[in-house]
Structures are given as structure tokens and as C-alpha cells.
């Protein structure tokens, strides 16, 4: 079965939308235990780290969008897997850098 160039573009957009939806669903399910008050401290901290990672990912995407005006200048690989790479960068930044967003959020949620 052959896929034309136009279909490939639509497929890449659908994959990006599905990935974003899956990430939002995962974050939402993490937060549901917190809302019910049944989350352990570890689950609460993990949800805070996931949120920090998501926030960093959105900052990276916005920065890339501002810097790369011409999407055609990207190769096919980056068009297809760029979101996955950005997500990996965000997770690495969250784990290695001490931004403190997750810790502040965790402490705030524990108080409330």
C-alpha cells in the first residue's frame, strides 16, 4: 500500500495529536488520585515532575516554533520524530536540572 506525500503529512499531524492527547491523559490520570486525596507522597511528587516535564516541553516547542519559521527546512526525520525528541529533552532537563518547579508545586499541594 503506497502513501502519498499529502497523506504522510496528515499522518504525521495525527500522530502528533495522538501523542499530545496521550500525554494529557496520563497527566490527568495522575492528578485524579491527588484530587481524591488517595495519592501517596511518591505519586504526588511523580505527578509534579510530570507537570514540570510537560511545562518544559511546551517551552521548548514554543522556542523552536519561534526560531524555525520555515517548517520545510526541517528534514523528514525531524518532522516525524521531532516531538518525541523534544519530549525526551524535556524529561532529561527535568531530571538533571534543578528547576524546582516540581518541588514548589509538591510543597504547595501538601500544604493544601
Overall mean pLDDT score? 75
Total DSSP helices: 4
Question: For the CA atoms, what is the radius of gyration?
Answer: 17 Å
Stretches where pLDDT falls below 50 for ≥5 residues?
1-6
Helix proportion: over 70%
Protein described:
The chain contains four helices and no strands. The protein has 112 residues and is mostly helical. The protein has one domain. The longest helix is centred in the N-terminal third of the chain and has 32 residues. The chain is elongated. The N terminus is likely disordered.
Give a topology summary.
Layout: H1 5-36, H2 41-67, H3 76-96, H4 101-111
Helix pairs in contact: 1-2, 2-3, 2-4
Key traits:
single chain, disordered N terminus, mainly alpha, 4 helices
Summarize the structure.
This protein is mostly helical and 112 residues long.
Amino acid at each position: 500500500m503506497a502513501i502519498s506525500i499529502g497523506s504522510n503529512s496528515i499522518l504525521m499531524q495525527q500522530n502528533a495529536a495522538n501523542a499530545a492527547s496521550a500525554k494529557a491523559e496520563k497527566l490527568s490520570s495522575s492528578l485524579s488520585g491527588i484530587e481524591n486525596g488517595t495519592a501517596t507522597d511518591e505519586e504526588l511528587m511523580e505527578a509534579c515532575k510530570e507537570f514540570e516535564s510537560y511545562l518544559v516541553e511546551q517551552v521548548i516547542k514554543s522556542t523552536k516554533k519561534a526560531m524555525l519559521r520555515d517548517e520545510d527546512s526541517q528534514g523528514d526525520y525531524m518532522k516525524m520524530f521531532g516531538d518525541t525528541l523534544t519530549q525526551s529533552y524535556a524529561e532529561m532537563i527535568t531530571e538533571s536540572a534543578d528547576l524546582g518547579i516540581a518541588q514548589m508545586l509538591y510543597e504547595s499541594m501538601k500544604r493544601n
